[in-house]
Amino acid sequence: MSPPVAVIAPLLVVLFTAILTAVAHRSLRVQRALSVLGGVAYLGAVAYLFARVKAEGTLVYQLADWRAPYGVTIVADDLSVFMLAFGSFVGVAALAFAVVYVDEVGQRVSFHPLYHFMLVGVTGSFLTGDIFNLFVWFEVMLMSSYVLVVFYSGAEHTRAALQYVVLNLVGSALMLVAIGGLYATVGTLNMADMARRLADPAAFGITTLAPVLGLSVVLFVVFALKAGIVPFHWWVPAAYRAAPAPVSAALAGVVKKVGIYAIIRLYFTVFAPADLGELALPGFSGSGPLAYFGPVLLVMAIASILLGGVAAVNRDDIDDLLAYSSVGQVGFIVLPLALAAFGIVAGVDAPAPYGDVAGVSGLAVLGVTAALVYSLNHGLAKSALFLASGAIYDATGTSRLDRLGGLAERAPVLSGGFFVAAIGLVGIPPLIGFFGKFLVFDAAAVAGSELALGGALAGAILTITYVTRAWNRGFWGTPTEVVDATRTNRTQVAVVVVLAIAVVGVGVAFDPVLEAAIEGAAAALDTQGYVDAVNPDTTTSATSGGGHA
Amino acid sequence: MTEVVLAAVLGFLFAVGTFLVLRRDVVRVVWGVSIISQAANVYLITMSSLGGAAVPFVSAGGADAPATVDPLVQALVLTAIVIGFGTTAFALVLTYRTYEEHGTIDMLELADGTEEAETNGAVATDGGADE
Amino acid sequence: MAVNLATLLAVVGLPFLAAALTPFVYRFLGERTAYYAAAVALACLGLVASLFGTHGAVSVEWIPTLDVSLRFYVDGLSLLIATLASGVGVLILTYSGAYMHDEPGQAKYYAALLAFMGSMLGVAFAADMIVLFLFWELTSLSSYVLIGHYQRAGPSMYASRKSMLITVAGGLFMLAGFLVLHAVSAEALGSATWALFGDGGILMPENAAAMQTALADQGLLVPVLALVGIGAAAKSAQVPLHIWLPNAMEAPTPVSAFLHSATMVKAGVYLVGRLRPLLGGEEWTAAFVALGLLTMTVAAILAVAATDIKELLAYSTASHLGLIVAGFGFTSFYGAETGAFHIVNHALFKAALFLVAGIVAHEAGTRALNELGGLREDLPITAGIAVIAGLGMAGVPPFNGFYSKEFLFKAAWEYATVHEGVAFLVPVVAVFGSIFTFLYSIRFVAMFFGDKPDALGHVHSPPAIMLGPPALLATLAAVVGIGGVTATFGVHLEPLETFVASVIQATGGELGGGAHAVAASGAAGAAAAGSEFTYHLPTSRESLPAATMSAITIVLGAAAYTEYDALHARLDELISGPLTANYYYDGLTDGANPFSDRVRNAVQTRRLRTYATWTLAAFVALTLGAYAAAEVTLALPVGELLPVTPPKLAVWLVLALAGVGAVMVVRANSHVAGVLTLSILGFMVAIFYILSKAPDLALTQLVVETLVLVIFLLVLDRLPAFYGNVTRSTALRDGVLSVAVGATVAITVLLATATRPDSIASYFVRTAYPEGGGSNIVNIILVDYRAFDTMGEIAVVSMAALSIITLIALRERGETQ
């Protein structure tokens, strides 16, 4: 059986693009052409993989034909390809914007290879089936994002990057600690193999699962740091502000989602089956890692929603506002995950179409679906907003609301794009943002959690507050001097409009999106299906010899 | 073998690293990060004693596999060391550039620098003015 | 007759399509786009008219996975709202053709108005909760754009944001209510549904009972009532959420007439009427009668305090919406009659009055009540319109508003006689509120009479195109009024009565027959028996209480009118500060800004120290919490320390030296010393790798350590010396956190090393040579089994090189971005 190359095609395409653009730095035109062509080819590869997975089910690529769990396994399932599909779209849209935005010297020096390496890291993270390999792709993604954040190397950039780098380096060390501990406790690095071993520890000579919870928490800290969930969000505002607009768009739209994906993949697919017995901490009930993560995620989600929302209200700079908004919005993504965890622990069902999907709690399917749809919404809308902010900056020389005003009169198309994306964030139907909010609300209602519902409502009202304030200050009002002289770049505006159209289109044609999200959620929750697809070698225990004590 | 000693030393290294990360001097912060990364690598290696005492090296015809220490962990640490080198080197250059931009390596002065700087580098504020 | 799906899709879709085309049309037609828009509205009105006589639900799939469909339902209530939306739309858009002459932003204006009309038609016909919510929010959104029409003006922006915040946030509460209804329907009807009407719809008569039982059993009736009620109250400007409506008058007057009196604000009362058959009962009555009468009274008082004619009309609108809500709040037949009939009457007289206000503002150049007077000379037709519509608003017989207000009095009186005791407050409050209604109505009309202030100058006659629409509306209002008079003598205005009867039927007519049944009351029994609807002047004995209430209203109102100016002044003075809902709204929205700053500054200190502290503290807390929750057993294998063997001793020694190196790094008093001691640590780690049988690692570590040392020294050469003095308290605090982090890691090490599962590692030992083709297992793993790791590793190192180039090459380019 030949390994399905489709699985690694996106990874290889974007990796080669990164290398080629690095080599081709002598000619900006060639470099740009390669970069954009590579981006398009990457989209094509992702589309092909998406179609293959939808047609054939989970696809597994065993590196050099080494059977899992020994070699690094690359797995494309419904969850991975959902994330990859919108991530690649947003990533390439931001790239197209960057070509006409980032200054030419910057592009020639390193922008293109760095950006593509970031996509390499993102793609690898979405697809890998191995936790150490996940660490490696994280590092690839982080290293490129470090440089892209500090790209213009001014005062604010270096300061923001320094904090971003230090916090993430500590995070990387913690991730190694967690991976090492998990390997020592469970005896494997392959995610499917780990899930199988956690479900049946005795068969693999695992004497105790107790440390797994703590180790998984250490890992969670790292993911939360990537996703920017309170109280691990510290680096977000400064880094998003410092990075060039297309990079902020990719960081908020795509890189943040890698943290979310990792949380879903590891806690719902891999760790969920571990039987830890009844938790012995006051305030927690139930058994299993999710019994611990449920309440933790709930508190962090609501804290993110409130902190991000409140802080975003009075920001004078559009990027600053969008950054705090991202902190708030990620809360909306994590909130249904908390409810999903609760659903699994308490066995809460949900009405169709969520019940009976993966043989698990309907509420869990609903919650993860909500998180996926909200991620998609935030990926599209927030990147459109960051790019719009970049286009405004390019046209007026500022992104400060107190120096802007009357943009809607002078740059109506760009303003229209901003408006659509902004009300997408608010959740006006039939935009995709509505369905995101709707599913979050639905999960809260099904879970019967007044706290979650109240938090979501408060967050939604805060969103209206800061979106209307930003709109009134920057886009209505009398055009200021800088706005009067506005000349927008057509290509930049076109990219914003394309994303805005996506925000509307994906909502109007929501049915296939929802189906894909439900399939993604089902894949995330179907541990057995994941294990079966990867099919790790089961002979380990029989042949491990006298190695262990 | 010597888990207690290892645990104590690793805990100590992490504590020292943490303490340094909280300092005002950027260079010390980088040291702290560096110590923490080193400690994480050492930690991984301590997971490697597979029961054997041999170096993970097999001679021809390894049908009778020797009882070596865990080669997988060594491979991971090798990767981690190299990645750590890359990031540390970057952090150092970043430190230098930060000093160039702000004229200080005091985290406190960095933080209290101009708040109103433009995004996207429009206003290159002179951090040196803070002194 | 069955409903035609194509017609419904056309009637809802056409305005949106037309809105999308408006920018292009405007390029060709310019200001005449108004007539294009009016033609679209007329087409919609025609389509709506073609639906009269049909009844039922149709649907077309939208999101089958969620069972959300574009479900539409046609009955009296939906036809009423749809007729208002398209009919008033025709008039308003025509009127705009003259009113908006030379105004800015016309393409946007007409596009938004058309989109609004489509949304409102959608609200009217939607028979699916999600679809209803969709159109509901779209009306709020188009309202936001239209209120902010004069986008350069501060008050417009304030008003549009206020309306958006209140109505959209209210909508979210309604959505939450719908979600609860959806969840309950699963239990009550067997499968969860979003449908209001059509197969399995929760409002279908056959399902209502099961839904009511399920709601009551689960104790969800009150929550649903509250959630949906907030949504309706926000949209229909019920106290205390009414505050956005007066500000919404910043919009051009046609918008005020259309959205903020005739249609959009009716969406809330529409929802109340819609859900009345399902949710009606004691709690319902308590909630909505109280809300409605409170709004009716408070808003009427505020209207008397108003100084601007549009402000007066805005408060009056809120007040009349309160009347309708109160009407639907009663479970009696009279209640349904009040709500249904007053929707019609209010739309007629209020839209006319707004257009009158528009003419006055346009021609006289002011909207201040005290600057207006004696306009009848210059604007005779307008004055006539104002009199007919104004007296209807006042509830003076035989004008149209009188009849619907009579129904309110009847419902209130009946409620009082059935429930007795404090229930008599209901008719008292109704009369009290109505007195203020009478007052401000007369005051509005009075600007056409009396002496003309000198400052006013000559007032031009409005163009015919601006006069036509209000004249038509006033004529219709007059016809309704006259219909009541003729009905007294047996000549009924049958089409109207039949139509209103169908609306009453849609809102449930007389509800239940349960505990709150009113059938026992002899007086009400006769009227409530059928679903027939007639209206006429009071003639019978049963009408006496209500007629008396009307008489009291008019007499007291007329008496109080002589003191209007004093009353107005007192109220204006009184209504300020904490007594007004605006005080809280402004307090919250203005206060949100400094609060936002405080929170931001408190949290984002821009100091790495703060960030790292919280990050690590959260890490410690979460991890230790997890260990505690899973009840890990922490074994301290101290016994294994013995016997001390040379290899052990060597390891200990190396580790001890590493620790000493770390301490010296902390204590280093110069950067160079620190770096050198740091490399002691690094070299000790290399030796540790050798002792751990990892020669490759040791080698790599040595190379890396040397390189890092070199880079460090190169960089340090350019950095100043810096001694961040550490105060004792800082050291203590950081020390505590450091110890906590160290302890957490130490525990993790102990837990992880305490167990030895079957590892996949042995596989590599076995297969590295025969299958991997090499002797050095670590190398084979790196280049073969885990080549992806190595690939990523190379990528990171290459990027590190790129990063250095970037940082140096772009160092001076920050300014040029």
Describe the structure.
The complex is a heterotrimer of chains A (549), B (131) and C (817). Chain A is mainly α. Chain A has helices at residues 9-23, 28-56, 78-99, 104-127, 131-149, 155-186, 191-199, 210-227, 236-242, 245-271, 289-313, 318-346, 362-396, 407-410, 412-426, 432-447, 450-474, 481-484, 490-508, 510-525, 527-534, 540-543, and strands at residues 59-62, 73-76. Chain A has a two-stranded antiparallel sheet with strand order 1-2. The longest helix of chain A has 35 residues, at 362-396. Chain A starts with 8 loop residues before the first helix and ends in a 6-residue tail after the last helix. Chain B has a domain at 1-49 and 70-110: Helix Hairpins, CATH 1.10.287. Chain B has helices at 3-21, 26-45, 71-102, 107-111. Among the domains of chain C are: 281-562, no CATH class; 608-755, no CATH class; 762-817, no CATH class. Chain C is built from 31 helices and 2 strands. Chain C has helices spanning 5-29, 33-51, 76-99, 106-125, 129-147, 154-189, 205-217, 221-235, 244-247, 253-262, 266-279, 282-305, 309-329, 333-364, 380-394, 400-419, 425-446, 464-488, 494-506, 522-529, 544-561, 564-574, 581-603, 608-629, 646-667, 671-691, 695-716, 728-753, 761-767, 777-785, 787-809, and strands at residues 56-63, 68-74. Chain C has a two-stranded antiparallel ribbon. In chain C, helix 12 runs parallel beside helix 17 (425-446) and helix 14 (333-364) packs antiparallel against helix 18. Chain C starts with a helix and ends in an 8-residue tail after the last helix. Chains B and C meet through helix 1, helix 2, helix 3 and helix 4 of B and helix 24, helix 25, helix 26, helix 27 and helix 28 of C.
Output the keywords.
heterotrimer, A: 549 residues, mainly alpha, two-stranded antiparallel ribbon, 22 helices, 2 strands, globular, disordered C terminus, B: 131 residues, Helix Hairpins, 4 helices, elongated
Number of strands of chain A: 2
Proportion of residues in β-strands of chain A:
under 5%
- How many E-type strands of chain B? 0
What is the H-and-E element order of chain B? HHHH
Can you tell me the residue ranges of chain B where pLDDT is under 50 for at least 5 consecutive residues?
Answer: 115-131
Question: Architecture of the domain at 1-49 and 70-110 in chain B, CATH level 2?
Answer: Orthogonal Bundle
Class from secondary-structure proportions of chain B: mainly alpha
General form of chain A: globular
Give the fraction of residues assigned to helices of chain B: 55-70%
Number of domains of chain A: 1
